[in-house]
Amino acid sequence: NPSCPDEEARVGGIDEFIAEDMLAAQQRLDIASFDLDSEPMIEALIELEERGIEPRVVVDNEHTPETVINRLRRNGISVVIDDRSALMHNKFIVIDGRYVWTGSMNFASNGVYCNNNHVIRFDSSELAANYMIEMDEMYIDRAFGPTSPKNTADNFILNDIQVENYFTSEDEIATKLARTIARADSEILFMAFSFTQEDIGEAMIERAEAGIDVRGVFETSGAGTRFSYYGEMADLGLNNLQVRQDGNPRIMHHKVIIVDRSVVVLGSYNFSGNAEDNNDENVLIVYDPEFVSYFVEEFEAVWAEAES
After folding, report:
1. What is the DSSP letter of 145?
2. Cys-Cys crosslink for 61: which of 83, 141, 165, 280, Cβ 3.0 to 4.6 Å?
3. Helix axis angle, 173-182 relative to 198-209, nearest 10°?
4. For the segment 160-184, what is each residue's pLDDT rounded down to a tens digit?
5. Is the pLDDT score of 249 beyond 90?
6. Active-site residue list
7. Is 22 within 8 Å of 48 (Cβ atoms)?
8. In the chain, how long is the greatest CA-to-CA distance?
Protein backbone atom coordinates (compact mmCIF):
# COMPACT_ATOMS: atom_id res chain seq x y z
CA ASN A 1 0.00 0.00 0.00
CA PRO A 2 2.50 2.66 -1.14
CA SER A 3 1.87 6.05 0.46
CA CYS A 4 4.91 7.92 -0.94
CA PRO A 5 5.91 9.78 2.25
CA ASP A 6 8.44 12.56 2.27
CA GLU A 7 12.05 11.40 1.90
CA GLU A 8 12.85 11.78 5.59
CA ALA A 9 9.90 9.53 6.51
CA ARG A 10 10.88 6.69 4.19
CA VAL A 11 11.90 4.09 6.75
CA GLY A 12 10.84 0.50 7.39
CA GLY A 13 10.47 -0.39 3.71
CA ILE A 14 11.20 -3.67 2.00
CA ASP A 15 14.58 -2.36 0.87
CA GLU A 16 15.72 -2.48 4.50
CA PHE A 17 14.82 -6.19 4.66
CA ILE A 18 16.62 -6.81 1.36
CA ALA A 19 19.69 -4.90 2.58
CA GLU A 20 19.76 -7.03 5.74
CA ASP A 21 19.66 -10.16 3.59
CA MET A 22 22.44 -8.78 1.39
CA LEU A 23 24.61 -8.23 4.45
CA ALA A 24 24.28 -11.92 5.31
CA ALA A 25 26.26 -12.80 2.17
CA GLN A 26 29.36 -14.86 2.92
CA GLN A 27 30.85 -15.45 -0.53
CA ARG A 28 29.33 -13.40 -3.35
CA LEU A 29 26.57 -11.02 -4.31
CA ASP A 30 25.26 -10.02 -7.72
CA ILE A 31 22.80 -7.20 -8.31
CA ALA A 32 21.26 -6.06 -11.60
CA SER A 33 18.97 -3.07 -11.26
CA PHE A 34 17.41 -0.75 -13.82
CA ASP A 35 17.15 1.93 -11.14
CA LEU A 36 19.32 1.84 -8.01
CA ASP A 37 19.22 4.53 -5.36
CA SER A 38 17.98 2.79 -2.19
CA GLU A 39 20.23 4.09 0.58
CA PRO A 40 20.08 0.93 2.75
CA MET A 41 21.02 -1.22 -0.24
CA ILE A 42 23.83 1.08 -1.37
CA GLU A 43 25.24 1.08 2.16
CA ALA A 44 25.00 -2.73 2.19
CA LEU A 45 27.00 -2.96 -1.05
CA ILE A 46 29.70 -0.70 0.36
CA GLU A 47 29.89 -2.70 3.60
CA LEU A 48 30.17 -5.96 1.65
CA GLU A 49 33.04 -4.52 -0.38
CA GLU A 50 34.78 -3.50 2.83
CA ARG A 51 34.41 -7.09 4.06
CA GLY A 52 36.01 -8.43 0.88
CA ILE A 53 32.87 -9.85 -0.75
CA GLU A 54 33.37 -7.70 -3.90
CA PRO A 55 29.77 -7.37 -5.16
CA ARG A 56 29.11 -7.27 -8.88
CA VAL A 57 26.74 -4.51 -10.02
CA VAL A 58 25.01 -3.96 -13.38
CA VAL A 59 22.77 -0.94 -13.99
CA ASP A 60 21.10 0.85 -16.88
CA ASN A 61 22.45 4.27 -17.81
CA GLU A 62 19.02 5.94 -18.07
CA HIS A 63 17.77 5.80 -14.49
CA THR A 64 20.45 4.95 -11.95
CA PRO A 65 21.85 8.34 -10.85
CA GLU A 66 25.44 9.05 -11.83
CA THR A 67 26.07 10.11 -8.24
CA VAL A 68 25.21 6.57 -7.09
CA ILE A 69 27.47 4.97 -9.71
CA ASN A 70 30.35 7.27 -8.77
CA ARG A 71 29.84 6.64 -5.06
CA LEU A 72 29.97 2.87 -5.56
CA ARG A 73 33.10 3.14 -7.69
CA ARG A 74 34.82 5.42 -5.20
CA ASN A 75 34.27 2.66 -2.65
CA GLY A 76 35.96 0.08 -4.86
CA ILE A 77 32.86 -1.51 -6.37
CA SER A 78 32.95 -2.38 -10.06
CA VAL A 79 29.79 -1.16 -11.83
CA VAL A 80 28.92 -2.23 -15.37
CA ILE A 81 26.59 0.13 -17.25
CA ASP A 82 24.32 -0.77 -20.15
CA ASP A 83 24.42 2.37 -22.28
CA ARG A 84 22.33 1.12 -25.20
CA SER A 85 19.11 2.89 -26.19
CA ALA A 86 17.30 -0.29 -25.12
CA LEU A 87 17.06 -1.06 -21.42
CA MET A 88 18.78 -3.31 -18.91
CA HIS A 89 15.45 -3.59 -17.14
CA ASN A 90 16.18 -6.42 -14.69
CA LYS A 91 15.71 -6.04 -10.96
CA PHE A 92 17.37 -9.04 -9.32
CA ILE A 93 19.87 -9.97 -6.63
CA VAL A 94 21.66 -13.29 -6.14
CA ILE A 95 23.20 -14.03 -2.73
CA ASP A 96 25.78 -16.78 -2.25
CA GLY A 97 24.53 -18.69 -5.29
CA ARG A 98 21.38 -19.65 -3.37
CA TYR A 99 18.97 -16.79 -2.70
CA VAL A 100 17.28 -14.79 -5.47
CA TRP A 101 15.33 -11.56 -5.03
CA THR A 102 13.39 -10.57 -8.15
CA GLY A 103 10.15 -8.98 -9.31
CA SER A 104 8.89 -5.66 -10.64
CA MET A 105 10.39 -3.44 -7.94
CA ASN A 106 13.34 -1.28 -8.85
CA PHE A 107 15.79 -1.06 -5.97
CA ALA A 108 15.04 2.62 -5.55
CA SER A 109 13.23 4.78 -3.03
CA ASN A 110 10.23 5.46 -5.29
CA GLY A 111 9.96 1.78 -6.17
CA VAL A 112 9.79 0.89 -2.49
CA TYR A 113 7.61 3.69 -1.10
CA CYS A 114 5.58 5.20 -3.97
CA ASN A 115 4.79 2.58 -6.61
CA ASN A 116 2.75 -0.62 -6.59
CA ASN A 117 5.27 -3.45 -6.95
CA HIS A 118 6.05 -7.03 -6.08
CA VAL A 119 9.35 -8.63 -5.07
CA ILE A 120 9.93 -12.30 -4.26
CA ARG A 121 12.75 -14.10 -2.43
CA PHE A 122 13.49 -17.60 -3.69
CA ASP A 123 15.70 -20.08 -1.86
CA SER A 124 16.99 -22.26 -4.71
CA SER A 125 20.53 -22.89 -5.88
CA GLU A 126 19.13 -24.18 -9.19
CA LEU A 127 17.22 -20.98 -9.87
CA ALA A 128 20.11 -18.87 -8.61
CA ALA A 129 22.38 -20.57 -11.16
CA ASN A 130 20.17 -19.22 -13.95
CA TYR A 131 20.46 -15.67 -12.67
CA MET A 132 24.21 -15.95 -12.22
CA ILE A 133 24.53 -17.08 -15.85
CA GLU A 134 22.54 -14.02 -16.88
CA MET A 135 24.73 -11.85 -14.67
CA ASP A 136 27.90 -13.28 -16.24
CA GLU A 137 26.61 -12.37 -19.69
CA MET A 138 26.11 -8.75 -18.71
CA TYR A 139 28.97 -8.24 -16.26
CA ILE A 140 31.73 -10.25 -17.94
CA ASP A 141 30.73 -10.51 -21.61
CA ARG A 142 28.91 -7.15 -21.85
CA ALA A 143 26.21 -9.06 -23.77
CA PHE A 144 22.86 -7.28 -23.52
CA GLY A 145 19.48 -7.72 -25.17
CA PRO A 146 19.52 -9.58 -28.51
CA THR A 147 23.25 -10.33 -28.18
CA SER A 148 22.62 -12.55 -25.14
CA PRO A 149 22.84 -16.31 -25.82
CA LYS A 150 20.10 -18.72 -24.87
CA ASN A 151 21.88 -20.77 -22.20
CA THR A 152 19.65 -21.03 -19.11
CA ALA A 153 17.28 -23.76 -17.93
CA ASP A 154 13.55 -23.14 -18.37
CA ASN A 155 11.82 -25.48 -15.92
CA PHE A 156 12.34 -26.23 -12.25
CA ILE A 157 10.60 -28.13 -9.48
CA LEU A 158 11.02 -26.21 -6.22
CA ASN A 159 9.52 -27.95 -3.19
CA ASP A 160 7.18 -29.89 -5.52
CA ILE A 161 6.09 -26.64 -7.21
CA GLN A 162 6.59 -26.10 -10.93
CA VAL A 163 8.43 -22.89 -11.81
CA GLU A 164 9.41 -21.63 -15.26
CA ASN A 165 12.13 -19.00 -15.72
CA TYR A 166 12.85 -17.00 -18.88
CA PHE A 167 15.01 -14.09 -19.97
CA THR A 168 14.70 -11.67 -22.88
CA SER A 169 15.73 -10.98 -25.48
CA GLU A 170 17.05 -14.52 -25.90
CA ASP A 171 13.77 -16.25 -24.94
CA GLU A 172 10.52 -15.73 -26.85
CA ILE A 173 8.51 -14.90 -23.76
CA ALA A 174 5.43 -13.46 -25.47
CA THR A 175 4.68 -16.77 -27.19
CA LYS A 176 5.03 -18.65 -23.90
CA LEU A 177 2.77 -16.19 -22.07
CA ALA A 178 0.17 -16.37 -24.83
CA ARG A 179 0.09 -20.15 -24.45
CA THR A 180 -0.28 -19.82 -20.68
CA ILE A 181 -3.20 -17.43 -21.19
CA ALA A 182 -4.79 -19.72 -23.78
CA ARG A 183 -5.04 -22.48 -21.16
CA ALA A 184 -7.31 -20.37 -18.92
CA ASP A 185 -10.53 -22.22 -18.06
CA SER A 186 -12.34 -19.72 -15.85
CA GLU A 187 -10.55 -16.42 -15.15
CA ILE A 188 -7.67 -14.14 -16.09
CA LEU A 189 -6.54 -11.25 -13.89
CA PHE A 190 -3.73 -8.89 -14.82
CA MET A 191 -1.90 -5.74 -13.73
CA ALA A 192 0.13 -3.99 -16.42
CA PHE A 193 2.42 -0.98 -16.33
CA SER A 194 2.66 -1.19 -20.13
CA PHE A 195 0.60 -3.48 -22.36
CA THR A 196 1.10 -3.25 -26.11
CA GLN A 197 2.38 -6.72 -27.08
CA GLU A 198 0.04 -8.33 -29.65
CA ASP A 199 0.56 -12.02 -28.89
CA ILE A 200 -0.36 -11.48 -25.25
CA GLY A 201 -3.17 -9.02 -25.93
CA GLU A 202 -4.83 -11.10 -28.63
CA ALA A 203 -4.61 -14.23 -26.47
CA MET A 204 -6.50 -12.43 -23.70
CA ILE A 205 -9.14 -11.09 -26.06
CA GLU A 206 -9.64 -14.56 -27.56
CA ARG A 207 -10.23 -16.02 -24.09
CA ALA A 208 -12.67 -13.23 -23.26
CA GLU A 209 -14.57 -13.81 -26.48
CA ALA A 210 -14.73 -17.50 -25.54
CA GLY A 211 -16.52 -16.55 -22.30
CA ILE A 212 -13.62 -16.48 -19.84
CA ASP A 213 -13.83 -13.71 -17.23
CA VAL A 214 -11.01 -11.20 -17.71
CA ARG A 215 -10.25 -8.25 -15.43
CA GLY A 216 -7.24 -5.99 -15.74
CA VAL A 217 -5.72 -2.83 -14.31
CA PHE A 218 -3.59 -0.60 -16.55
CA GLU A 219 -1.14 2.02 -15.31
CA THR A 220 -2.88 5.28 -16.17
CA SER A 221 0.12 7.03 -17.73
CA GLY A 222 0.37 4.41 -20.49
CA ALA A 223 -3.26 3.41 -20.89
CA GLY A 224 -4.12 6.19 -23.31
CA THR A 225 -1.23 5.65 -25.71
CA ARG A 226 -1.94 4.64 -29.27
CA PHE A 227 -0.85 1.02 -29.02
CA SER A 228 -2.08 0.22 -25.51
CA TYR A 229 -4.59 -2.60 -25.24
CA TYR A 230 -6.61 -0.58 -22.74
CA GLY A 231 -8.70 1.17 -25.40
CA GLU A 232 -9.24 -1.96 -27.48
CA MET A 233 -10.32 -4.03 -24.49
CA ALA A 234 -12.55 -1.27 -23.11
CA ASP A 235 -14.22 -0.76 -26.49
CA LEU A 236 -15.09 -4.42 -27.07
CA GLY A 237 -18.16 -4.10 -24.89
CA LEU A 238 -17.94 -7.58 -23.38
CA ASN A 239 -19.50 -7.89 -19.94
CA ASN A 240 -16.90 -10.49 -18.95
CA LEU A 241 -13.97 -8.26 -20.01
CA GLN A 242 -13.45 -5.37 -17.61
CA VAL A 243 -10.48 -3.01 -17.54
CA ARG A 244 -9.63 -0.06 -15.33
CA GLN A 245 -6.93 2.58 -15.05
CA ASP A 246 -5.09 2.42 -11.75
CA GLY A 247 -5.80 4.69 -8.80
CA ASN A 248 -2.26 5.26 -7.55
CA PRO A 249 -1.34 8.90 -8.23
CA ARG A 250 2.25 7.75 -8.72
CA ILE A 251 2.89 4.51 -10.63
CA MET A 252 1.21 1.09 -10.70
CA HIS A 253 4.35 -0.81 -11.71
CA HIS A 254 3.24 -4.48 -11.64
CA LYS A 255 3.69 -6.81 -14.61
CA VAL A 256 1.49 -9.68 -13.46
CA ILE A 257 -0.89 -12.17 -15.11
CA ILE A 258 -2.94 -14.60 -13.00
CA VAL A 259 -4.60 -17.58 -14.68
CA ASP A 260 -7.38 -19.52 -12.93
CA ARG A 261 -5.96 -18.41 -9.56
CA SER A 262 -3.43 -21.23 -9.85
CA VAL A 263 -0.74 -19.80 -12.15
CA VAL A 264 1.01 -16.44 -11.92
CA VAL A 265 3.36 -14.64 -14.30
CA LEU A 266 5.64 -12.14 -12.59
CA GLY A 267 8.92 -10.27 -13.04
CA SER A 268 10.42 -7.26 -14.76
CA TYR A 269 8.90 -7.89 -18.19
CA ASN A 270 6.39 -5.29 -19.37
CA PHE A 271 3.96 -6.66 -21.95
CA SER A 272 5.56 -4.68 -24.76
CA GLY A 273 7.55 -5.12 -27.94
CA ASN A 274 10.67 -3.52 -26.46
CA ALA A 275 10.61 -5.89 -23.50
CA GLU A 276 10.28 -8.81 -25.89
CA ASP A 277 12.80 -7.80 -28.55
CA ASN A 278 15.35 -5.35 -27.14
CA ASN A 279 15.58 -5.20 -23.36
CA ASP A 280 17.13 -7.42 -20.72
CA GLU A 281 14.26 -8.82 -18.65
CA ASN A 282 13.41 -11.82 -16.50
CA VAL A 283 10.11 -13.63 -16.04
CA LEU A 284 8.91 -16.36 -13.70
CA ILE A 285 5.78 -18.47 -14.06
CA VAL A 286 4.78 -20.19 -10.81
CA TYR A 287 2.19 -22.98 -10.66
CA ASP A 288 0.91 -23.01 -7.09
CA PRO A 289 -2.49 -21.77 -5.81
CA GLU A 290 -1.16 -20.81 -2.37
CA PHE A 291 1.65 -18.70 -3.84
CA VAL A 292 -0.76 -17.22 -6.39
CA SER A 293 -3.23 -16.27 -3.65
CA TYR A 294 -0.97 -13.40 -2.54
CA PHE A 295 -1.04 -11.96 -6.05
CA VAL A 296 -4.83 -12.33 -6.17
CA GLU A 297 -5.03 -10.38 -2.90
CA GLU A 298 -2.81 -7.65 -4.36
CA PHE A 299 -4.85 -7.57 -7.57
CA GLU A 300 -8.11 -7.09 -5.68
CA ALA A 301 -6.58 -4.22 -3.68
CA VAL A 302 -5.30 -2.51 -6.83
CA TRP A 303 -8.61 -3.21 -8.62
CA ALA A 304 -10.60 -1.64 -5.77
CA GLU A 305 -8.40 1.45 -5.85
CA ALA A 306 -8.56 1.75 -9.63
CA GLU A 307 -10.81 4.06 -11.58
CA SER A 308 -13.44 2.33 -13.71
Report:
1. G
2. 83
3. 10
4. 999 999 999 988 899 999 999 999 9
5. yes
6. 253, 255, 260
7. yes
8. 60
